[in-house]
Every structure is written in C-alpha cells, then in structure tokens.
Amino acid sequence: MISQPIYTLAIESSCDDTAVAILCNDKILANIVATQHVHEKWGGVVPELASRAHLQNIVPTVELALQQAKIDKHQLNAIAYTKGPGLLGSLLVGGTFAKAFSLSLGIPLIEVHHMQAHILAHFINGGQSYPKFPFLCLTVSGGHTQIVKITSYLTLEILGETIDDAAGEAFDKVAKILGLPYPGGPMVDKLAQTGNPNKFTFPEPKTGLFDFSFSGLKTSFLYLVNREMNKNPDFIEENKADLCASIQQAIVSILIKKLLLAAENEKITDLALAGGVSANSLLRNTFDQLKSSGYDVFIPPFEYCTDNAAMVGIAGYFKFKEKQFSDFGNPSLARFPLIELA
C-alpha cells in the first residue's frame, strides 16, 4: 500500500495534440491539451509540422499544468509519457522532454503504451463506475481497432484486431471522399444525425472470428460514390447525410457484432469502450443499449476518449505502484504490440 500521495506528471504526444496532465494518485489536478490547427488546411496530420508544433507547445503546456495543479515540480514523484505507437517525430518530442525532466528531478520515468492508456482511462478519478476484472474493451481509434481482454490493470490480452485499416481511419477516408473538412470522423457523425442509415448497404468483410477489416468497406464506399457520380454529378451533395448515416451504421454494426462474439466466447459480461472513435454518437448509443441484453457497459467521459494525458497519467500511476520504471535508453517506437508494455 502507498500511504503518501503520488504526484505524476504525464505527457501524451503521439499525434497532433500536445497534452500534459498532473495526477495525485488516480485524481486529476490538471489536464491540458494544446491542439494543433495547422493541419486543417492540409486535410490531415502532417508529421513534420506536428513535431515542430510539439516543440513549441511542450514547455508552456507543462508550465500551465503545474500552475493549474497548484504544485511545484519538486513535488512530483514520477514522469509518465507515451512511448508509442504514433508519429515518431511527435513521440520523440514528448519522450525526450519526459526523460530530461525526469533526470533533472531525479524521479522515476514510466513509459506507457498509447492504447493501454485509453483502456485505463476508465479508472481516472477513482472510476466511480468502472468495469470489474476480467472485462473486455473495444478500443477504437484512428490507428487501432482491437478487442482486448483485461484481467488486471497491467495484464492485457488481444483477442482480435484489424488486419488493415482501423475504424477511425475508415471514417476519415470516407470523409475525404465526400469532401468533408479535417478532422473527418466527427463531421461524418454530425451529418449522419439527419441521414437514413438504411439508404445504402455495404458488404461485411470476411475475417477471423474476432478480427476486423475496414479496407474493403472503404473501397466499396468509394466505388458506390464513383458509380453514382458518373450518373449524377450532384450525387454526393444530394445524398451526403444518407451516405454518412449508412457507412456509419455499417462500421458500428461490425464493431458491436465482433465484440458480442468475443463476450459470448469468453463468458464475460463487463464490456468497456475506449479510444477516440468512442466519441462517435452512434457507437456510444449502440454500446449503451447492450445493457438491455444483460451486459454491464462502461464508457469513459467524453474528454478522456480522445487523446489526452490524464489517461497516460493513470496508467503511469498503476505502473508506479508496481515499480515498473523505464530505462532512459529505451527509444520511442512508432509501432509495437500492446502486450510489450502490458
């Protein structure tokens, strides 16, 4: 048992947001996100621009977090940071700062897997309503789509994952086909609110029992749009809401179907949702409706679904309790399996 409060400063820089949080044990004292708007004109994240923005944002964001938390840097007990996966240049900025800050203060350094952090976001602030072990978590983001079995805070097993595109990537590519501004996923969700989800149908990809595939779905959507545009140049404008609602329905249906298959196979009734795409309204609503089928379902508050440092901090806290500290020579990694840091 840890009797003294543990203050953790956490850094998340895996993509285009510079995020810093400070936690006292599992409670948030500060959670700051410096959003980069430079990518909007390019229709997607430009890695080089992202790393430069992180360099500009990291120091002032850390200073602001310390001010908001009302603590001095010398009160910190550990520095946690996202080791990966993500954009390598962005990860290097956060990782290098974390190592230097940890070394200067003489406190432990803790590396965190980005997707493990998303899963553990359920336990931020004591997790007033949190899943019981073992539980299954559907992790859905721009780069990952996985079904993970969690038997303890730091013990994870991947049951299934995408064999090509992630669900979030599919949403963004669909948005680009429709000419929607970046970030596209939220725009698809917004337009789908007024569309008919049954207007267009798409084939369900054939994969392993608990695995996903969204590349074929995206291609099917592209072929449909191109075919209809050849007949009617105004097809997209006349059917934009229905197209968004239909593809969103197809993606969410696949996600939930696979999760329920895994739950039945594992005989687990506690189900959790995590990752940036868990902010999607249809996914959240469909997931919540599983309560009527006898499942206990858990979704983190909206602010902990998208990339943030609070989730890195809670993962760091649980690792601190187990003394799972990092070596300063460990490199940041753009790609590596979730299990390596579990």
Layout of secondary structure:
Elements: E1 7-12, E2 17-24, E3 27-35, H1 47-69, E4 78-84, H2 88-105, E5 109-113, H3 114-120, E6 135-140, E7 145-152, E8 155-161, H4 167-177, H5 184-192, H6 215-231, H7 235-266, E9 270-274, H8 281-288, E10 296-298, H9 310-321
Helix pairs in contact: 1-2, 3-9, 4-5, 4-6, 4-7, 5-7, 6-7, 7-8
What labels would you give this structure?
Nucleotidyltransferase, domain 5; alpha/beta; 342 residues; 9 helices; 2 domains; 5-stranded mixed beta sheet; 10 strands; 40% helix
Question: How would you characterize the overall build of this protein?
Answer:
The protein has 342 residues and is an alpha/beta fold. It has 2 domains: 7-123 and 304-341, ATPase, nucleotide binding domain (Nucleotidyltransferase, domain 5, 2-Layer Sandwich), CATH 3.30.420; 130-300, ATPase, nucleotide binding domain (Nucleotidyltransferase, domain 5, 2-Layer Sandwich), CATH 3.30.420.40. It contains 9 helices and 10 strands. The protein has helices at residues 47-69, 88-105, 114-120, 167-177, 184-192, 215-231, 235-266, 281-288, 310-321; strands at residues 7-12, 17-24, 27-35, 78-84, 109-113, 135-140, 145-152, 155-161, 270-274, 296-298. The strands form 2 sheets. The protein has a 5-stranded mixed β-sheet, sandwiched between helices. A 5-stranded mixed β-sheet has the order 8-7-6-9-10, sandwiched between helices. The longest helix has 32 residues, at 235-266. It is globular, with a radius of gyration of 20 Å. The two termini are 21 Å apart. The model has no long low-confidence stretch (mean pLDDT 93).
